Amino acid sequence: MIDKYLEQWLIKANNDLKVAENEIILTPEDMVTDAICFHSQQAVEKLLKAYLIFKQIDFDRSHNLEYLLEICFEKDESFSQLEVGNLSFYAVEIRYPDDFYIPTEKEARECLEIAWKVKEFIYRKLNISDSDIRSSLIPGDEGDTIGEDEGNESNSTSEPF
Fold first, then answer.
1. Cα distance between residue 121 and residue 67, in whole Å
2. Which phi and psi angles does 2 have, rounded to 5°?
3. For residue 26, which of 15, 31, 82, 153 is within the disulfide window of CB 3.0 to 4.6 Å?
4. Residue 97 above 70 pLDDT?
5. Could you give the number of structural domains in the chain?
6. What confidence score (pLDDT) does residue 150 get?
7. Is 100 within a domain?
């Protein structure tokens, strides 16, 4: 059983994956590849942070997946087998037109594949499956409300972003 705060991180990661999955099935002309890459990166970031929160490991506010992966590796050396490619590039740089870049369809598919692999790996580490995660938190459902702080005490980090 996972606590509510951890579950919320996993729901957010899954929602990022859903956005990427819904976009990847479109025709190449309609596919928004930078959105697929961005949401794949976001999913991986949230999955790694969920693991760190589960293990009650502090981490600095960062979108850098290599940094997060290194902290995970310090706790569990099996993280050395996890590859995140260049997903960190898609966290910020690609979101703005300063250095305009549109990823190829191949890049988008590779990013999503990495995210799926990371999800599978983290779920094994947490000993959970999709059925353990509610697809959404509905206000009023089992006393949950959006923005409720209850359950956050499992987070050992003051700024988990």
1. 18
2. -105, 155
3. 31
4. yes
5. 1
6. 39
7. yes
Give the CA distances from residue 32 to residues 11, 21, 150, in Å, rounded to whole numbers and listed in that order: 23, 11, 37
Domain membership of residue 12 as a residue range: 4-139
C-alpha distance across the termini of the chain, in Å = 23
Q: CA-to-CA distance for 57 and 157, rounded, in angstroms? A: 7
Token readout for 86 is 């260049």
Which CATH number does the domain housing residue 22 bear? Answer: 1.20.120.330
**Per the structure block, which two tokens stand in for 54?**
């589960």
d(CA 135, CA 126): 17
Q: How far apart are CA 43 and CA 9, in angstroms?
A: 10
DSSP per residue, the chain: ---HHHHHHHHHHHHHHHHHHHHHTS-TTT--HHHHHHHHHHHHHHHHHHHHHHTT----S---HHHHHHHHHHH-GGGGG---TTGGGGTTGGGSGGG-----HHHHHHHHHHHHHHHHHHHHHHT--GGGS-S-PPTTGGG--TT--TTGGG---S---
| 147 is a domain residue | no
At 132-141, the pLDDT tens digits run 887 544 444 4
- Which residue has tokens 């996993």? 10
User: Is 161 within a domain?
Assistant: no
User: Quick one: DSSP state of residue 28?
Assistant: T
